[in-house]
Predict the structure.
Amino acid sequence: MTIAIAALQRRRWHRGLWPYIARRLLAGAALLLVLSSLIFLGTALLPGDAASALLGRSATPAALAELREKLGLDQPLITRYLTWLSAFVQGDLGNSLMNGRAVSDSIAARLGNTLFLAGFAASIVIPLSIFLGLFSVRYRDSVIDRTITFVTRGLVALPEFFVGYLLIYALSISLGWFSSSSTVFPGMSLSSRVVATVLPCLTLVIAITGHVTTMVRACVLDVLSRPYIEMAVLKGVPHGTIVWRHALANALSPIINVVLINLAYLVAGVVVVEVVFVYPGMGQFMVDSVFNRDIPVVQASALLFAAIYIGLNLCADVLAVLANPRLGFTS
Amino acid sequence: MTRMFKLPVSVMLSGVAIALFIAVTALAPVLAPYGVNEIVGISWDPPSLSSPLGTDMIGRDLLSRFIWGARVTILTAAAATLLACLLGASFGILAGLRRGWPDMVLSRFVDLVMAAPTLILAMVLLTILPRSLAFIVAIMALIEATRFYRLARLIAVDTAALDFVESAYLRGEKTLWIIFREILPNGIMPILAEFGLRFIFTVLFLSTLSFLGLGVQPPLTDWGSLIKENKDGLLFGITAALLPGVAIAVLAVAVTTMVDWITAGENGGQ
Amino acid sequence: MTTSLLEIRNLTVRAHGNPAAPLLVSDVSLRVERGTVLGLIGESGAGKSTIGLAALGYARAGTSITSGSVRFDGIDLFQESESYRRALRGQRIAYVAQSATASFNPAFRLLDQIIESSLRVNRLDRGAAQERALTLLDVMGLDARTIAMRFPHEVSGGQLQRAMTVMALCARPDLIIFDEPTTALDVTTQQDVLKAIQHAIELQSTAAIYISHDLALVSQVADRIHVLRHGCTVEEAPTIDLVTRPSTPYTRALLEAGVHETTVGHRDAHVALELQGITAGYQTGSAIVRDVSLAIGRGETLALVGESGSGKSTLGRVVNGLLRPRTGRILFDGRELAPSIHNRPLADRRAIQTVHQTPDTSLNPRHRIEEIVGRPLAIYENLGRQQRKDRVGALLEQVELSPSLARRFPAELSGGQKQRVAIARAIAARPQILICDEPTSALDTLVARDVLALLMRLQAENSIGCLFITHDLNIVRSIASRTAVLRHGQIVRAGYTSEVLAPPFDDYTGKLVAAVPTLPRVDPEPALTLKWNAG
């Protein structure tokens, strides 16, 4: 009997999961493809092109034409897009208009730095906000809950750059504990890298924890208000089992969703924080390039950011389904 | 009526704060002691009676610049949000009511825009477009309109399925009546709440762009630019770089509290 | 004298917050003896569920028990600790909720949820508990092996309700509280589930409290019936006594609301509306209504009967013009109507009016009553403001409402009042055909009776033809001269009501008729026998 049931469970589990993930991956890839064309078109169609942006207004028509030919701008749009895309997929992100260097070389190290910073922040934000959210629910309507709610709500309102400069003013200028700019370089030891990125990481944590905590709390409270929780009480299930088994089983998937989607917001937050702390990451690089209208760099970094963002959303969907057997993939 | 006397303190404070911001925006020419770019002292003057916040790197009065900056920030954000709301809500309601292929096309486009991080999207557009105030308002409005579109479309679809809208159709009411008398009165509160929240988001968005040097350009100034210009002042004890941050936070908390209170009152009453 | 299994004494329950609010339960006393079933009857707001939960030693958040006691097997539950009460729940007292769909945890398989209580105190090991659960599922008429391994969303409402009963029975409790366990189900399913529940509790000789708003239903299962109103006891008596010799006017009214005289004569009238060979469905799906033809005479009521999903409401939408039929014609006064509402002139729109099931969704919550009722007057008759106001007042009086309600919003009215406003709006257009889509099924018994009477009076006075969509055969008997029975979108039986609802039946109509519990005529003389089913 029991064996038969276990076999049945396994079979159901595998029936729809992989096709589902494949479907989601395909959809994500399609979305990225459309976005890439949008990014390319956005930077190619609008008034002014790379050549005129590069040479400025005083350029002679002859020089412009020459540069256009060099950059391939005289080709039809679709050819240019496909060339760009196929090169991109092969890792050739083009050359910077500013210094002529390969974009991929400049980006590689910076991407690593950015991912390190974001990962560092995420590794603190995720446990911290889930803990705060659950803690707040556990002591619902108590002083603790109110304090957490009040503080998180305040944190949500603070812009990242404000938090960043406040930390610089307090911890770096007044107390002199940390350097106000985060210098990292290749070959740096992990510990000194961590020390160098404490302030930007802390800034990101403060900026995002508020959001995630509020939403985790709301998720769990929502589940606790459902009739099946009351039913569990009326079945005599002990309080702990209700929260950890009955409620969490249903809250897990919305929580995962909320957490990962907020991590996607890290993408925007990281740009600002990198500028504040003069951190050599993708964000700062992209801001500089936008400022200098360095189109190949902007295209490449925008597409990378979008890919990370879409990837996180994708993970959120798949993990949420994994965490919730009810969410469709069996049917 | 009796509700006035039961105003929670937080709501009262929020009201005062919002009124103050509106007053500063409206009365900037009267309130600001000096012009935006008027040089009144030397580099990084400490706070004094004539310059309560001190001066910036090239000797401009920081209080005046903060007040003028408030005006630009709030007006620009308000204009962008209003434009976004009008654009998004009207297309959203029409799409939700009429359905069919225009709804399909618009909704897919909105999905696409919302699938990319807003800041990155804006940065891509700002790479090529001129960084004038009009374009910045247009870019922010376009991005924010997608949020209003989603909400308004949802409201229209949900409400249109209700029997009273069906009744109105059966009775022979015109589409305009159905939108303005049947659907909007039931959807206006969520849209207004969204307006408040989106306004705050736009203030943050604009400040971020300006802080990155991609938003409001000199000779105009706004809160984000002020932070960018005066961050070095922190080293000299001039904390003016923090003031716009405080202002944004206060504005955000005040508007959010107000929105919560209004929507809660709406759900609680009647 | 041995102690009762459950004894509630002078129970009073209050809602927190507003001290002026009426008590949820006020001074109610009742007993349940071992192996017997007590029916708890009342309309919405009677405090039935609150009492049911109190029997488990449980008060919902926001409510508290201010006085009285609940003794289970001699133990005063509210004097004991929460952990003591928790140990009783699921083990000795079990609960079956109204909405099984919402009350099963969506994340776990049914089997795991069913045996959860049984495992807790090691009464049974897992294997034995599973065996027992499967046996009980069989008893309840379910395909045990497939149902047990399903998740709640993969199982129908009727099956879930049975599974929930199994969940309650599994730990062999002494007492089960059934809180409206069949209300959310379809008529025929309702009867099957009720039978299964009855069978199972008899088999286990479990005592039960059966909570319902439906007196006829409860009288099928209960040994005694306790009638509640506004949180107070009205009366309690053995079932037979209560349904034949009620001692209070309220119970008598409840009983009479369920029994209907056939007042409608056979009339052959001038045909006002005729459907010819209507087939209709949504977009690309299969047809929901197939080849339906029927006719309604002027001033006549035609009842359209069927279960949910039979296509009754879809047919109503075809008549309305909201759904364009794939084939077939609609004739009004002998001339063909445009199939789509967009092509119908105002005069045609005016002639056909609708009363929906729930006034909560059919009245715009942001409009005042005067605007709701006055709007047809503005559109169809171009009346000015003052004339409209006068007519609205008159219309409100016609539906037995005070004209002073005109300035109110729907949320300020009761359910019955709102439905009267919806009727006033329909009548305001001076229609010739009225489509009533279950207009009383969302209302309490007595309110429903009055609204129905009003509807019939207005219909007769204005000789309006009425297409009355309902699942309630009692209503059909009392109002409709002719009846059509719809199943899977096809008419399976049609004709004069007295003939349609009398034997010999076709299978389906027979099942529908049998599904309706009917009460014996209330008689001043004591009746000795009871007959549940008319069919």
